Amino acid sequence: MRKFISTALLGTALLSLAVVPAFAEPMHKDAMAVETVLSKDHVTKDAMVESVMKVRSSGAFAQKKYRVKGQFEIIEKDGQTVLRLSDDFKTKAGPDLKLFLSPQSAQNVTGATATQGAINLGALVTHNGGSDYIIPAGTDLSAFNSVLVHCEQFSVLWAAGTI
Description:
- This protein is an alpha+beta fold.
- Helices cover about 25% and strands about 35% of the residues.
- The protein folds into two domains: about 1-45; about 55-160.
- The protein is built from three helices and eleven strands, in the order αααβββββββββββ.
- The longest helix has 23 residues, at about 1-25.
């Protein structure tokens, strides 16, 4: 009987210790304030994020050599201009794929002319999924007409999108 009572007491003590921490730590007051504002104004957290971001341009890629699925946006975010590829971005893998802003139109640009007067935004981070590329500060976007996915090593233009 003594063994049963001590086991029962131990079990009750452990159970109470396991339950207490779940209720012991109150929500941080800043988190409570955000939740209160969101519920009072019926504003979603996504809407708060988007209010900080300004879309300057958007479009889709047209196939040149290979199909590129997805959209792009040029946005202003946190004081920077960013080229954002959508989460559904997808293309065939290739060597030395880079993103460029080009002064040429998406219709007229070729693999041989893709880098002429263009700004290299960097290597393609992923072939499947969204990613961001910082456009250099001071870039005059009105001087550019297209966004390119281009294999620089072999001068093969994957796709182009009109800005």
